[in-house]
Design brief:
Elements lengths: L16 E6 L3 H14 L3 E7 L12 E4 L4 H11 L4 E4 L6 H14 L2 E5 L11 E5 L2 H11 L2 E5 L15 E6 L12 E5 L6 H10 L4 E5 L8 H8 L3 E5 L9 E2 L2 H18 L7
Parallel strand pairs: 1-2, 1-4, 2-3, 4-5, 5-12, 6-11, 7-8, 7-10, 8-9, 10-11
């Protein structure tokens, strides 16, 4: 059961802006520390985590764990907590929470900014096989290779449950409490980001002949693609879902600049820009 933590205590009644940071990524963790460091008492920030990772990276400041209860629950939370800005720094494939955030912010008249990872650029030497979804990836993987490295996240492994004839390699942050839904597999434990040499070692040590991944983008997990390129391995690449419409930036520094402009605009537009 998710831990629906109680709403955080409001530490400062003079904070200009209350920000809900939708997290769960490394970028979100950096923002959770950078925003208070730069804007001090101008911002009161709460990070929201879905609660899917048993041992998440430590997040500075207030943290809320667990779901909101769909669009209605998130809308009610935004209103009850007097949120002024939702900063969506979730994973590019967390399309449901991003869609819920857009609808809830529209309903509650709350501003929203998305931090969207830059897409990976395909190198001429890459052997990518782009597919629409994980079901398609599972349908073709045994036609591409016999030892596949699945880098898709533990919650998505069920898509490959019926695949036979393929030995899967799965890297997890910690040992699973339940058996994985794969017929043949081995597990390695590690927490990224990982460098090129580490990824090259994984490919060689486990005789990988095909990589399966999502088009998540960003620099933190790109080394596996560079390693696959150097080894001339095919990569089954699941396309990224469309980004929700709305204001968006592609870097942490751009998000900080946007937030600074937002705070300045709020300060001059009203003498009481945030309800206390």
């Amino acid at each position: 059961m998710p831990d629906h933590s109680a709403p955080p205590t409001r530490r400062s009644q003079t904070a200009r802006c209350r920000v809900l940071l939708l997290g769960g990524t490394g970028d979100a963790a950096v923002l959770a520390g950078s925003i208070p460091a730069r804007f001090a008492d101008d911002v009161l920030i709460t990070t929201s985590l879905a609660g899917r990772t048993e041992q998440p990276t430590r997040i500075p400041g207030d943290v809320r764990t667990g779901g909101f209860g769909g669009v209605e629950g998130l809308t009610a939370y935004l209103r009850d907590q007097a949120i002024d800005l939702v900063l969506d720094a979730t994973h590019p494939f967390a399309d449901q929470i991003s869609a819920h955030a857009r609808i809830a912010c529209e309903a509650a008249a709350v501003d929203r900014l998305m931090l969207v990872r830059p897409m990976w650029r395909r190198d001429p030497l890459d052997r990518w096989i782009e597919v629409a979804d994980l079901a398609t990836a599972a349908a073709i993987v045994d036609k591409i290779g016999r030892r596949a490295w699945l880098t898709i996240g533990a919650s998505e492994l069920h898509a490959f449950a019926n695949v036979t004839g393929v030995q899967f390699l799965v890297r997890l942050i910690h040992a699973p409490s339940d058996p994985l839904p794969l017929k043949r597999h081995e597990i390695i434990i590690g927490r990224g980001p990982f460098g090129l040499r580490e990824e090259q070692h994984v490919l060689q040590e486990h005789a990988i002949d095909v990589l399966v991944c999502k088009a998540s983008g960003g620099a933190a997990t790109e080394a596996k693609l560079v390693a696959a390129r150097g080894a001339k391995l095919p990569v089954i690449m699941v396309r990224r879902p469309p980004t929700e419409p709305g204001a968006a930036v592609v870097s942490i520094e751009a998000a900080m600049t946007w937030l600074g402009t937002f705070l300045a605009r709020k300060a001059v537009s009203t003498t009481d820009p945030c309800l206390s």
